[in-house]
Amino acid sequence: xxxxxxxxxxxxxxxxxxxxxxxxxxxxxxxxxxxxxxxxxxxxxxxxxxxxxxxxxxxxxxxxxxxxxxxxxxxxxxxxxxxxxxxxxxxxxxxxxxxxxxxxxxxxxxxxxxxxxxxxxxxxxxxxxxxxxxxxxxxxxxxxxxxxxxxxxxxxxxxxxxxxxxxxxxxxxxxxxxxxxxxxxxxxxxxxxxxxxxxxxxxxxxxxxxxxxxxxxxxxxxxxxxxxxxxxxxxxxxxxxxxxxxxxxxxxxxxxxxxxxxxxxxxx
Length: 268
Known about the structure:
By secondary structure, this protein is mainly α.
């Protein structure tokens, strides 16, 4: 997230070499600097948004032709922050473990976390500007949005990825066990990060879109209470839709998973 301006550009305007220089800097200033495989980590720009990709993957679009036309129109305006991902050029024998399906799951998780972190940063810049204090309703909505994103990021990293990783790392001794444990780690992580149900994916993206609309229109809408009320209505409604979907999934699967996630995200 070092270069906000580059991430705001449309896909065709992105200077990939510039983003790659930031990736190289990030790697060399982290613990990865001593990793023998650090040079195999590359940047990639996808031509499809994460939500459109997951919609096709999960087969949730009923009208394929209409959906395709809509996606083409949206993807022409795809921003770098929505297209950016990492790729790992795994060579044999690592390619046995890091196969196409595995790398696809890592990519999906990374793109969701990057989206949330990017939007959180934009909203935090609104908070730092202090202009929101001129309108109490802005303050309330901004706080709600930041709370949702921070809760999700904490939950995804501290309560899903980290414990799942430790569980995976502690449960293999042979290559077969490693493959099974790795697959289970990724399946559990994508599910717990709300990336395996098509309707939840769309609900979540709707919330992110509203947050982006708020952040990008912050200055010009500051004195327009009606527009703020409209955004708050949209945001509250999207959260409610997400909660209702989680309740349906919890009832049908008889698992507490989605109920617990809703509680941690403070959905009401």
